[in-house]
Amino acid sequence: MHKKNGNLEMEFFAKDYGENQEEYKYIMGDTVQKAIEEITYKSSIFPEEPFRVISGNRELAIPMLLSAVEKAVREGEDLEEAYQLHFYALFLLAQFQARECFSQIMELVTLPGDTLDDLIGDAVTSGLSYILYNTYNGDLELLKRAVENPEVNDYAKSGILEVMGQLYLDGDLGKEEFQEYIRQIVYEEEEIGEYVYTELASVICECHFVDMLPELRRLYDDMRVEEDAIGGYDSCIDWMFQYEKEAFCHSPVNAADMLRGWAMFEQPAREKGSEKDMEKLLRSVAARQNRPVPKVKIGRNDPCPCGSGKKYKHCCVNKPKSPIDLIESEEEKKKWLKDYPETAKERKKGRIYLEDLFDAESIGVDRLLYLALMYRAIPIWSREPEETVRNRRRVYLSEAFERFAKRVEREQLRTLHQYDEKYAIHYRCEEWLPALLNVLNKKEELYRRVSACYEKMRG
After folding, report:
1. How many Cβ atoms are within 10 Å of 87's Cβ, its own excluded?
2. Distance between CA 404 and CA 409 in Å, rounded?
3. What is the separation, in whole angstroms, between the first and last Cα of the chain?
4. pLDDT digits over 244-280, tens only?
5. pTM of the model as a whole
6. Which long-range contacts (CB under 8 A, 24 or more apart) does 75-78 make?
7. Sign of the alpha-carbon torsion through 436, 440, 442, 445
8. Are 94 and 251 in contact (CB under 8 A)?
């Protein structure tokens, strides 16, 4: 009787045979073959024991698993519907990091889109990048050709781009080479896949390619990005400067852990809460997220919040509050600016900060635009009145315009494009100036000023 504890059972079994490794391989080969047979066809119960046996016998299992992948490639849409071994094989080969199987796996991945979807289903979107990353053999051209192939599944291309992004983060793919490849796709007139461009935007952001902001903007201008998936351009700017994100792909992986929770398998019964309980939970979460931020009282001897370095009593204590200060407290502003790119209080090696690219004046204007226009995730049952939103936008955008107008006059800027090229961050003039006009009364002097400036500088 052998102790069953992951790979330990196989190790003890091998020791029993001492020098006779051939006999061991023969016996275990039969055991692995039986485990392979148990996962060859679809089952509603996750095959825990067969996965354990196969996981403990890498060298014996790989040829059998690879054979299943090759069978799927040969037969394609004619593959028996209940056949499942090729699907499991992909995850197990990834667990084994079987890099010698990468070219065959890529043959499967580059089958025509619908065929691949029929063969591996949800694995195209859930796990494919991990499979490719953990079996990648260094053949970068194989990845590039797959992305450029019009017959390859769009989601598979997206997974391949994730792998390339991870290779860059690992230092295995040069920055110049990767950026040149991305630019080639962005500016190529021929479409290469609906979802590929959205993934490109994600890769640009997660790799922190701040010098590729023009390419990111081009993707949005050409309406190639699925904003429902990753948000608008303004959200991508925030994303670009967030350095605590998870990697594109993880290594190593455990096939059983990745698969056992999938909907294709029966799951342990879970205690179901009532709809009332769920509603209560959602409201509780919403209440925590949208709880009013308590105002912090500033002491007379405290540093002035304006940043002058003077004591509050010697600076702004008696100054009348501006509309900006009245519309929201400093604490509330901080809450809604929590995703705005951080300033470099303590610089960290390898990181680029917003102030490395833009001056303080530009960032100051951009923060006002951000507070006015960035989408605020507020549950539908606690939505702000439209007039509240309109008034807030009016105040922030009006102040942004006054600062914008001073810079335009000082630097003799003639077009909105000139301003945007130097100073636009989250929003371009063509986006926020019309938004300002929309919340102003046409009889106001400010409306006339903004309208005149907008028409003059549109070029």
Report:
1. 20
2. 9
3. 85
4. 877 899 999 999 999 999 988 998 776 555 565 656 5
5. 0.82
6. 76/111, 76/115, 76/119, 77/114, 77/115, 77/118
7. negative
8. no
